[in-house]
Specification:
This protein has about 190 residues and is α+β, with helices and mostly antiparallel strands. The protein has helices at about 5-20, 45-50, 65-80, 140-160, and strands spanning about 25, 60-65, 85-95, 95-105, 110-120, 125-135, 140, 165-175, 180-185.
């Protein structure tokens, strides 16, 4: 085979490989559709402001659905991260949270998934552990998951500093489709 003919045959293969590398397919997808619901009755901020403490215990109990938290992320948090994260969807499963999104890194984008467990420590602070993560069809190595867990944990703790003098997290429970958070007022 002549040299120019080989180059002509290799060119389409290179184009296919570059196209695949720039947009990885077959990444994880949510197990069920989760709509965003931007109505006043379902906004998290409104719900938190109107929740009343239990008269006997003084505890506040808030139940949040997948649609509510997904809407909150789309409307608030995604603005800060839209250059690297689009189409976020939160799915609650028993004892864990799954975040699905299209993740961009430079010219490469892929559907991704992060599976987390969230517990409350003895100080009433959330502790996030990333159990698994995928970028496209590829799992993220466990050594990177520890660093990611630390970063997410710190971001959540920092975002809660304004409320720690007034409130203490008691528990968080995840079931299929919902999360229930119990808070003690100090």
């Amino acid at each position: 085979m002549s040299k120019p003919l080989r180059y002509i045959l290799i060119l389409p293969l290179l184009i296919i490989l570059v196209g695949t590398a720039c947009n990885l397919s077959s990444g994880p997808t949510p197990p069920r559709p989760v709509p965003t619901v931007p109505t006043q009755e379902t906004r998290i901020e409104q719900m938190v402001q109107t929740v009343q403490p239990d008269p006997t215990t003084g505890q506040l109990t808030i139940t949040v659905t997948e649609a509510q938290i997904t809407t909150y992320i789309v409307e608030n948090l995604q603005k800060d991260y839209e250059s690297i994260l689009t189409n976020p969807v939160v799915v609650f499963q028993p004892n864990q949270v799954e975040l699905y999104a299209t993740i961009k890194s430079g010219a490469i984008s892929a559907d991704g998934r992060v599976v987390m467990s969230v517990t409350i420590d003895t100080n009433g602070e959330p502790v996030v552990e990333i159990l698994e993560a995928n970028f496209g069809p590829f799992p993220i190595p466990s050594s990177l998951l520890n660093n990611l867990s630390t970063a997410v944990d710190k971001a959540i703790r920092d975002s809660m500093k304004d409320y720690q003098s007034e409130y203490r997290l008691q528990s968080i429970t995840f079931t299929t489709g919902a999360a229930t958070i119990v808070i003690n007022k100090k």
